[in-house]
Structure formats: C-alpha cells, structure tokens
Specification:
Order of helices and strands: HEHEHHEHH
Helix content: 40-55%
Strand content: 5-15%
Number of helices: 6
Oligomer: single chain
Distance between the termini: 24 Å
Largest sheet: 3 strands, parallel
Radius of gyration: 17 Å
Length: 123
Amino acid sequence: MCLIARHFESLGLPTLILGSALDILEAGKPPRARFVNYPLGFESGRFNDKADQLAVVREALTGFSNASSPNPISPNIVPMDFEWQAGWDMLYEREKGKLDNRSPRTTEPQYQTEEDRLAAKGQ
C-alpha cells in the first residue's frame, strides 16, 4: 500500500494510510500515515464496536488537514491515541496457540515464487 500511496502522491493525489504495524509503516515510508496501536487486522477500530470504528476513522482522516507535506525520505507517521487492551489480550491468546496457528511474524522479505525473489533483487 505504501508504494501505491507514493505513486498516487507523485501524480498529485493525496493519500493517507491507516496502519497498526509501526515497523511495516516505517519500512514502507508512506507519504502520510496514522498509526493506531491495535492488533493487526483492526486498523479501523475494535471488532463490532461502531462508535470506536467511527472515532478511529474520523481521527485518521484529520491527517489530510493536519499532516505536513509528504516526505518520501522520512515518512510522516502520526500515532493516534487509542487503546484496546482486550485486543492485545486476544492476540496473546492467539500466540499461545489457543485461537489459531499462524506462522510467527518476520521482517524478512517473503516471495511467492523464486522468480519474484530474483525480480525484487534485480537479477
């Protein structure tokens, strides 16, 4: 998404990314972003909580008027003041294997095919 946002910005179309993985936002260097410290998958608010979802999205949208101009070298990532401890507790339960068996998260690049890996490395 960050690559797409940078492309749209280069064409004069303002963008804003709403994310909950700060390391991914920092690596992607989006022109404008709002960081919500919720578990992955809940960037737009708590599950089944319309009031929280609206509050998160409304706050994020202020990024269009409050953010400085996009900077391709240093991303403009602004943290938002939302907390959801029950969401992190749910994530903790997942990690203990009680709710699912997803692979652990890694910061290493992942490719669908060997051809994709070679193309990404310019080979």
